Amino acid sequence: MRRLIGHDEAWAVWRAARGGQRMHHGWILAGREGLGKANFARAAAAELVSEPGVPQPAPEAHPDIHVLEPLPSNEDEAKKRDDGKPYARKRNISVDQIRGVQRRLVTRPTLGARRAVIIDAADDLEKGAVNALLKSLEEPPVGTFFLLVTHQIGRLLPTVRSRCTVLRFHPLVADDMARALAEAAPELTGPALEAAIAAGGGAPGAALSFAEMDLGGAWQLMSRLVAEGDPDLALRGELSTILGQRPDRARLLALLEVARRVLVAAMDRRDDAARLRIVEAHAALASLAAQAPTYNFEPALLLLEIGGLLASVARTREGAA
Question: What is the C-alpha separation between 134 and 138, in angstroms, rounded?
Answer without folding.
Answer: 6
